[in-house]
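WARN no homologs supplied; continuing
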Amino acid sequence: MDESNLEKLAELVKDFNGIDKTRNSLTYRPGTRLVRGYSGVEKETGAISAPIHMSVPYVHPSFDESTGFGYARYGSPTRLELENTIAMLEGGLKAWAFSSGMAAISALVKLFVPGDHIIVSDDLYGGTYRLFTTIYGKYGLEFSYVDTSSLEILTKALRPETKAVFIETPSNPMMHVTDIRAVAELCKSVNALTIVDNTLLSPYFQRPLDLGADIVVHSGTKYLGGHNDIMSGFIVIADKRFIEPFFTFTMSEGAVLSPFDSWLTLRSLKTLALRMEKQQENAAAIAAFLKPHRKIDRVFYIGDPDHPGYGISRRQTTGFGGMISFYLKDKDQVRPFINRLKLILFAESLGGTETLLTYPVLQTHGAIPEDLRNAVGVNEKLLRISAGVEDPADLLEDLDQALNF
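OK structure emitted
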């Protein structure tokens, strides 16, 4: 789409516009921006909480006039407020809100055409692997899974047909840290996109676009929603050349976030700073408790100074987040340990207010072939904890008694 057509469409559809980076809300510090959102108080009524607009069609005042909205599949006022807030938080131009993180990634893959090659972090969420390999592999896209935390390995994996590098950092569940700025510079040198899944740290602790990434993706179900009661996903862009394709994808397929779930997410974002600071505090306490324990073989927490990616994390983030993975010394310890937990919940998610424990080999990473799982360390001894906001003393007591067998 050329510039003139893009401008005409932007005039008709507010949902197609990028955020206004001159707004006062953009000058506040991150915690304040989270509380106030993009628009702050609604001008028409003075409502502090963004209104929920449940309408699907929107009336046009006359034949050649528009309110900026026409049909909820391609734009609703509540979803637009959320999208603008997420774009503001990530330092992006425009964001789109989807019905799940996987719906967002599915839209992302549609940027590419048969014959394109995409390099992906080898240690990533199993659902992303399943989507790439089982679904989109049939359409002529090729995916290579490599350790993106090694720039040398990543460079060797590049091909003439490589169009993008898709990074999870920190990765899930092995907590590998990839140098976003270095990868972005490498990608720019070969005309490839840098795409970062920022789910585990959120824009509160990490802003990949500031480091040179082209696109950020989120499972908003996790930290952004934060209460284990909303499914959502987000894409954030830094360049307006992506506006038309993503607008077309959402308008055509309709895998968008509902007005009510958009409002719930706006409500949840107000406490993101408080939650993530507390989750980080609890994660650090849990990691310190587990690291010397006689039944623990190894702990993976990016806030541990012994973590190989600690220095990169200090440079590119403002916090270490609430995710920890660890090996028990014996796989036969897994079942009794899980069954003895009383406070920590055995469940397949992360980022919520409750502390959750996940067994990746059976839950989040079951879709990944065993040989690839073993190669990256996702084996039968690995467990993952998403720290919640409970009293840390209670969490440590629960872990202590669960390991006492």
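The longest strand covers residues 162-168.
OK
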